[in-house]
Amino acid sequence: MKLLGFEFAPLLIPIERRLQTISVFYFTSTFLFMGFSCLLLMIYLLLFTKYYWIPVIYFTYYFFDRKTSAQGGRRINFMRYSPVWKHYANFFPLKLIKTAELDPKKNYILGCHPHGIMCYSHFGNFATEGSGFSKIFPGITSYLTVLNGQFMFPIFRDIFMTSGAVEVSRESISYLLNQPEKGNAVALIIGGASEALDASPGNYTVRKTGRKGFCKLALKYGASLVPVYAFGENDLYVQLRNPDGSKLRQFQEFCTHKLGFSPPLFHGRGIFNYTFGLVPYRRPLNTVVGSPIDVEKNENPTAEDIDKLHKQYLQALEDLFETHKVNYGVDKDDHLIFKK
């Protein structure tokens, strides 16, 4: 039904689809608003109520626990296996496609592309069991790395860590790759927040220049590199046009540089309408995990060693995209674009 330019969802929709929409809306609203809401709540309790002792106790706990997000986090499988994430995955639907085995006796760095607006694919695949990561890659433990600032918000940080999410810092990644137990897969969103500004339907741009730290860590700890591409991630929202060089893009890049996260202007659908809102559109998400690039351990790699591995990785990523693109809705004449 259409009204005032909005296309509204029918009243009679199977409960399963309602649950899918609610699950995705839960993640979206949590990602966008929960951190700041928890921070404001703590400030309010501390300064304006008689319950000041609650934030005092919490921040005392936080002081002693602040390093946990850089030391493997605090994974709780009950949370990762929650039925919420099955509904979340079925909304798009989200699928994880394996092209090669991952040996549990090795560690891995999964290079995830593209960032998209809110990393729906990478969160669903590597921070939950919604797409069945543990069944598809038995013996491998995934850790999604996210901006360090996410772990500075009270309460939100504790909830986020239950998914297995950790800081995207050198200290954090080194901790996981240096453990005596193998089979750790560190999911790294290589393009970072700036890549979100290129997230629009039909755009296959990934960032590459200067992002070689993951190669250095792979060499230092002998971790295999695995290219990962999520087909459909950039199709979930419509972003306000912001071509390179435009005033909007310059402002967005300024904010990204100063604040550490990008401010894309976008819209999707709503909970009860298909026209406008914060919920992503239902678009198939197919995440293809490529073959691992085995890396020989080198604790003191040279710039030449790093550059060589980086070029090898980018070629593997491009080959992965070209091999599978037609299967997942990409025109044969479209190609991956590497952006400086």
Automatic annotation (TrEMBL):
UniProt keyword Kinase, yes or no: no
Protein EC: 2.3.1.-
A biological-process GO annotation: triglyceride biosynthetic process
Topology within the bilayer: Multi-pass membrane protein
Record CDD domains: LPLAT_MGAT-like (cd07987)
GO MF annotation, one: diacylglycerol O-acyltransferase activity
Assigned GO CC terms: endoplasmic reticulum membrane
Protein family (similarity comment): Belongs to the diacylglycerol acyltransferase family.
Name of the molecule in the record: Acyltransferase
Source organism of the structure: Lottia gigantea
